[in-house]
C-alpha cells in the first residue's frame, strides 16, 4: 500500500487541566492508530515550530504578541476555551507549521496530511472555539506569497462553520472558502465565506453525502485550484458531543473518500487536516480521525 506523507509533532498534544472538555488525548492516540494501521511506515514528518512573522502575516500582530507572551485578557481566554500557557502555545505553533509542511508535501506528492490542524474559528484578531491560530489560512497565504500556488480551495467539512477562515481570508480572493456545516451549531454569528451550506439538525449519511457531492466537484471545476485544503473534522458524527448531525463511521469514511477522489480525479493536490471531534471515547475518536488518512492511502493504490 502506498501512503501519503503524514506530518506529526509530539507538541500537537498540550497539557490541560484534569476534566477539561477538550479531548486533547486524541492527538497522541491518533499517532498510535496511524502507526498501527501502517499508514506511516517510514514514520512521521516533523515540522519546526512556526515563528511570529509567519503567523502575523495573517493574524493581528498585537494578538500574536499577546499569545506568545502568554498574556491575554480573561474574556479572550474564555472565548478561546483553552488555557493560554506554554504547552498550548507550543501546540499552536506546531499545528500551524504542520499544516504548512503538509501542504508543501501535498504539492510534491499529490496527497499529504497533518495529524492536527483545522483551527478554523481563529479570526484575524482573536481566537475562539478551541482555536488560537488559523493554520489553514496561514499556510494558504504563505504559499501564495511564495508563488507556490496561485489559487486554492478550502473544503471545510467540520460540523461548525469556518468563520475564522472566512475572516482571515476575506481579502484573499485567490482562496475560495467552502463550508458544509450544521446551520444551528456554533458559532452563533457566522462570518460568510465564498460558499456556505448550512445543514439541518439530525441529517444522516445519505442526505449529507448528497449535499457534499452537489458542491465539491462544481467548486473545484469553477475555481481550478492548485491545492485543496480539506478540513476533515469528525464532529458531524452522531455520537459527537458538540455536533448536531447524525453521520456514522461509514458516512464519514464515504465523505473523506469523495473529497479525496474529487481532487485526485482532477489532478489537484490535496492536504488534509483533522479538524474537530469531541466524542468522549478517545479510541473511537482517534479511529474516526484516521479515516481521512486511510482514504488518502486508498486513493494512491
Characterization of the model:
This protein has 301 residues and is α/β, with parallel strands linked by helices. Helix 9 links the parallel strand 6 and strand 7. The mean pLDDT is 97. The protein has 10 helices and 7 strands. It has a 7-stranded parallel β-sheet, with helices on both faces. The chain has helices at 26-36, 52-56, 61-68, 74-80, 86-109, 135-146, 163-168, 205-223, 249-265, 282-300, and strands at 6-7, 111-114, 152-156, 175-182, 195-199, 227-231, 270-273. Helix 8 (205-223) runs parallel beside helix 9 and helix 9 (249-265) packs parallel to helix 10.
Task: Indicate the percent of residues in helices.
Answer: 40-55%
Class per helix and strand makeup: alpha/beta
Shape: globular
The residue-averaged pLDDT reads: 97
Number of strands: 7
The major sheet is characterized as: 7 strands, parallel
Q: How far is the first residue's CA from the last residue's CA?
A: 6 Å
Q: Kindly provide the radius of gyration, computed on alpha-carbon positions and rounded to a whole number of angstroms.
A: 17 Å
Number of helical segments? Answer: 10
Topology pattern, helix = H, strand = E: EHHHHHEHEHEEHEHEH
Query: Which stretches are poorly predicted, pLDDT < 50 over at least 5 residues?
Result: none
Report the β-strand fraction as a percent range. Answer: 5-15%
Which strand order do you get reading across the main beta sheet? 1-2-7-6-3-4-5
Family: Belongs to the histone deacetylase family.
Keywords: Hydrolase
Domain Histone deacetylase: 20-288
Protein name: Histone deacetylase
Amino acid at each position: 500500500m502506498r501512503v501519503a506523507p503524514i506530518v506529526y509533532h509530539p507538541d500537537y498534544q498540550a497539557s490541560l487541566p484534569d476534566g477539561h472538555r477538550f479531548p486533547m488525548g486524541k492527538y497522541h492516540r491518533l499517532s498510535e492508530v496511524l502507526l498501527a494501521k501502517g499508514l506511516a511506515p517510514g514514520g512521521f514528518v516533523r515540522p519546526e515550530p512556526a515563528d511570529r512573522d509567519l503567523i502575523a502575516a495573517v493574524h493581528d500582530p498585537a494578538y500574536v504578541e499577546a499569545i506568545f507572551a502568554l498574556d491575554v485578557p480573561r474574556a479572550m481566554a474564555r472565548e478561546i476555551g483553552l488555557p493560554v500557557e506554554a504547552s498550548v502555545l507550543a501546540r499552536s505553533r506546531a499545528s500551524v507549521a504542520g499544516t504548512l509542511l503538509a501542504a508543501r508535501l501535498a504539492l510534491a506528492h499529490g496527497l499529504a496530511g497533518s495529524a492536527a490542524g483545522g483551527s478554523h474559528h481563529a479570526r484575524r484578531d482573536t481566537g475562539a472555539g478551541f482555536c488560537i491560530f488559523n493554520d489553514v489560512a496561514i499556510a494558504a497565504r504563505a504559499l501564495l506569497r511564495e508563488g507556490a500556488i496561485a489559487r486554492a480551495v478550502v473544503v471545510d467539512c467540520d460540523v461548525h462553520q469556518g468563520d475564522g477562515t472566512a475572516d482571515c481570508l476575506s481579502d484573499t480572493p485567490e482562496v475560495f472558502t467552502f463550508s458544509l456545516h450544521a446551520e444551528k451549531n456554533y458559532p452563533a454569528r457566522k462570518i460568510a465565506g465564498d460558499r456556505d451550506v448550512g445543514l439541518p439538525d439530525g441529517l444522516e449519511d445519505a442526505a449529507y453525502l448528497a449535499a457534499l457531492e452537489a458542491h465539491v466537484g462544481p467548486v473545484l471545476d469553477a475555481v481550478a485550484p492548485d491545492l485543496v485544503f480539506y478540513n476533515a473534522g469528525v464532529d458531524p458524527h452522531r455520537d459527537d458531543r458538540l455536533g448536531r448531525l447524525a453521520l456514522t463511521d461509514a458516512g464519514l469514511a464515504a465523505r473523506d473518500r469523495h473529497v479525496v477522489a474529487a481532487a485526485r480525479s482532477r489532478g489537484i493536490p490535496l492536504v488534509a487536516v483533522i479538524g474537530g471531534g469531541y466524542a468522549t471515547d478517545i479510541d473511537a475518536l482517534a479511529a474516526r480521525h484516521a479515516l481521512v488518512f486511510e482514504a488518502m492511502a486508498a486513493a494512491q493504490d
